[in-house]
Design a protein that fits this description.
This protein is an all-alpha fold and 151 residues long. Helix content is 62%, strand content 0%. The longest helix is centred in the C-terminal third of the chain and has 31 residues. It is flat.
Amino acid sequence: MRAIARLLVLFLVLAVPLGVAHGQGQQPLQDTFVAPLADPALEARAKALQRELRCVVCQGQSIDESNAPLAADMRRLIREQIEQGKSDDEVKDFFVVRYGTFVLMNPPVDSDTYLLWFGPLVLVLIGGAVIGMTIMRARRRLATEPAPEDP
């Protein structure tokens, strides 16, 4: 009976703080609602731009997919700038100036983004070289070891 009571106390000690922390991180959906533009063509432009810009909070999602309050603010800014008559490139440049090229889902290839574009390829090549060297060493070791004698 004591073992069950200890497990229950342990569960409460561990589970209650996690539940409280989880509840604090939730944002009401009202904060992330962005009213669509009246003109369907302008709204389509805004949606396309939202898919091209990265949420700087979530980092793996576009601002179109993200429910973060900052992404909602970025969506509102896009609509404001489109209503002001700015082009898609001007809107993107606004966000690049503010957040850097990281905010673009498809950043351009330049000196600042070489590591982003070519880093994974370099890591694959290094991994392949390490595996190749390991195999070559194992083969050399097997070739130089004397064969076991049969009884």
